[in-house]
């Protein structure tokens, strides 16, 4: 269970988060929607400790993230970055097995490679990509490798940052289905950031609408269309007019 | 009043930058002695900074040594002191030109490469990815590079010194009529232990500065291609200036006291 209470974060005069309150129940898939620059990525980076909020409290399973052993805390997480964020200098399998080749989860070299190849298969990639460099892969394949890396150590919590951005609709559908399947079969808690409404409907159990640094609406995905919230309504229908300014 | 405000703002900015770089250096040193240690990354950095820099260091040194011999011969001829070519080439290469030129070549080749690589990693969220994979970016990226440069640049300086002297020897014996054996004997007899020690010590300091600046500017890069470009340019400028300033200080420490 992930809980954010009144979380604030600014960069200079830019107040990105202005009191985010969010509750993600254990084993569920939460999708955070919102326009560009509304603080979606900063929200999950705050949970991971990549940015430090000026105010507010973030807990995971009731434990304040600032008062926990950092390595043990991060070992519970997997993250798929928007651009996959694969390490250019390492072959694909070493990217996937990165966490398994060093630190507290270190495994023997051959065992780590075997797990990496198994995870690559899980995301629909064959063994022959294992020894390639990330630069040799297409955008969709890189996303899948990033997904394989995110699940390599069987994390309890997985974050997906814009998992379908830059992909064609078919590949986006493949990634959406993979995320849904993996989250269901692993029983993991998932938080996904997206403004792709097909991803929202494919991945989410619950949806939260973030606008101007606060959560405007949250509820089950089934209630989203009838939410009656003008922000949600404008966003999911992609209207230029409404409470969300088109020019930001 | 505006002038004073501008001077004050510049001074504060400079002091802030000095403070941030000092803090970064201290953090690097503290991570240097605390596990985990990434030996694979260290060996890759040793290869890239040391072995792969040899051609550029060798070429720089050989041409500089040769040119130095010609200059000293021509200058010395003005007061019948052509015979001092071996001694001045040796002392010039070992005390000053060897370490400084190798340091500047490392700043150009290695500092820029480190800054561009790390800045690109930052822009593409690879640094954030490292953190989420329970890996401290400073331990994984900064420490191996800084340690490798500190260890290997003195060796490059030693190679540069030898190759530079060899360049002077080749020019002096090939075109200026010096006796090959006498030239080498004069060189060896003239050099002192502290000349060599100062050269190697400068190499270590310059290597530390070069890698540290690359890592610092890379880690603090701005966004996008422009951010990477600025980080790369800033790292080379800072490394070159700090190397020259450190050279002045170290020369004072070794030879004025």
Walk me through this protein's architecture.
By secondary structure, chain A is α/β, with parallel strands linked by helices. The longest helix of chain A has 18 residues, at 169-186. The two termini of chain A are 33 Å apart. Chain A has helices at 40-48, 70-74, 92-96, 109-122, 139-151, 169-186, 197-203, 230-237; strands at 2-11, 14-24, 29-33, 55-60, 63-64, 77-80, 157-161, 189-193, 206-211, 214-220. Chain A is globular, with a radius of gyration of 18 Å. Chain A has a domain at 1-76 and 189-240: P-loop containing nucleotide triphosphate hydrolases (Rossmann fold), CATH 3.40.50.300. Chain A is built from 8 helices and 10 strands. Chain B is mainly α and 257 residues long. Chain B has one domain (41-255). Chain B is elongated, with a radius of gyration of 21 Å. Chain B starts with a helix and ends with a helix. The mean pLDDT of chain B is 95. The interface between A and B is medium-sized, with 25 and 14 residues.
CATH class of the domain at 1-76 and 189-240 in chain A: Alpha Beta
Number of strands of chain B: 0
Distance between the termini of chain A: 33 Å
Strand content of chain A: 15-25%
What is the general shape of chain A? globular
Largest sheet of chain A: 6 strands, mixed
Record field, number of beta strands of chain A: 10
In spatial order, strands of the major sheet of chain A run: 6-7-8-3-9-10
CATH architecture of the domain at 1-76 and 189-240 in chain A: 3-Layer(aba) Sandwich
